[in-house]
């Protein structure tokens, strides 16, 4: 089980510009933009949760070096696979988000249920409730085709909108990343290559620079932030809808909101699909310490952060996000490990 916690931030801009207004947050600027520390207030630190993390075998079947999203920058050394906020400004993303929400006119969850002023601006139209079924705008009109692990999957209706809201192109993320080559993610260099656990366990994430944690005995949730999780976060009921349309879409999922005190209904509990290829993030390549021989020490952990993710991870749409923090000093060449179970 991974050790995770919820950390409150006030808004996405706090994550973006490193100026969290949380009274107990200690955030320092890096020259590359990402904040280096997160909130340490007792409320947040107390909400540690245990998550299960399930991963299908996938990389070997999927192949390497898929094409990059059109218009996205190169992800070789020196470029940013998940660039800091200035790649797509919040304004641009907000505009895209508004355009999409108007185009689809469908909400998904609280953060997606933006009011649609066009509905109110058309008084001659009957309300949605008044319209006959045949007259209602059909969610079936929405349609999106995406390349999943198991080939092309077509999603329709609400599923199409949900999937589209995490479209890496919309978020400004690459939809793939190179393996065995250094990439810059959130201001640091990393490489995704065969894990030290061995080839049959797939890939792992390695640091390409030293990341110093001053006091690793007391550094939990105070260590440097490494990178946000850049993949989809679905409500349970939406995840179930997606899997009903394409069961093969599932890769591995991490259940959030299992921490003590969470009041979410089961259908509202959020599920992370950590497919790293689909969403252009490297967080899903972090391997677990469980069962390792020789025993690996965790050097990072997942932290769930209330508040939208920083750009370009979808700050327009999403109400909270995951961040990976260092919990002990990581040297260049070290593989990242955290504690979670999978099946
Ligand atoms: C989140 S993924 C980690 C990245 C994975 N190695 C890959 O290439 O996609 C989790 C999967 O990695 C493998 N894995 C992670 N930690 C492991 C460990 N300690 N021992 C064996 N396999 C592990 C399991 O197959 C698990 O389903």
From TrEMBL:
Amino acid composition bias (Low complexity), ranges on this chain: 1-20
Region (Disordered): 1-33, 114-141
Domain SET span(s) in chain numbering: 188-341
PROSITE patterns referenced in this protein's UniProt entry, alphabetically: SET
InterPro entries: SET_dom, SET_dom_sf
Family matches, as Gene3D superfamilies: SET domain
Protein name (database record): SET domain-containing protein
Phylogenetic placement of the source organism: Eukaryota, Viridiplantae, Streptophyta, Embryophyta, Bryophyta
């Amino acid at each position: 089980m991974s050790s995770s916690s919820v950390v409150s931030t006030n808004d996405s801009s706090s994550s973006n510009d490193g100026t969290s207004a949380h009274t107990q947050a200690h955030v320092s600027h890096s020259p590359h933009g990402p904040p280096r520390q997160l909130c340490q207030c007792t409320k947040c630190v107390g909400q540690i949760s245990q998550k299960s993390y399930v991963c299908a075998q996938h990389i070997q079947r999927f192949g390497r070096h898929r094409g990059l999203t059109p218009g996205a920058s190169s992800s070789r050394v020196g470029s940013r696979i998940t660039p800091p906020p200035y790649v797509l400004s919040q304004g641009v993303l907000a505009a895209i988000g508004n355009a999409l929400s108007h185009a689809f006119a469908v909400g998904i969850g609280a953060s997606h249920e933006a009011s649609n002023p066009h509905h109110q601006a058309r008084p001659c139209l009957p309300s949605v409730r008044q319209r006959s079924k045949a007259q209602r705008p059909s969610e079936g009109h929405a349609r999106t085709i995406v390349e999943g692990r198991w080939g092309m999957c077509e999603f329709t209706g609400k599923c199409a909108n949900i999937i589209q809201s995490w479209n890496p192109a919309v978020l400004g993320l690459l939809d793939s990343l190179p393996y065995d080559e250094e990439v810059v993610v959130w201001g640091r260099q990393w490489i995704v290559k065969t894990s030290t656990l061995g080839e049959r366990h797939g890939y792992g994430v390695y640091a390409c620079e030293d990341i110093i944690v001053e006091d690793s005995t007391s550094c939990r949730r105070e260590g440097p932030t490494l990178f946000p999780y850049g993949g989809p976060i679905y409500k349970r009921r939406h995840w179930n809808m997606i899997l009903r349309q394409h069961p093969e879409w599932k890769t591995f999922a991490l259940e959030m909101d299992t921490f003590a005190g969470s009041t979410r209904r089961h259908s509202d509990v959020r599920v992370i699909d950590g497919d790293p290829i689909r969403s252009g993030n490297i967080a899903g390549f972090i391997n677990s310490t469980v069962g390792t021989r020789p025993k690996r020490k965790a050097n990072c952990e997942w932290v769930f952060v209330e508040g939208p993710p920083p750009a370009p991870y979808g700050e327009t749409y999403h109400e909270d996000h995951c961040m990976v923090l260092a919990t002990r000093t990581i040297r260049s060449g070290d593989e990242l490990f955290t504690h979670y179970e999978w099946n």
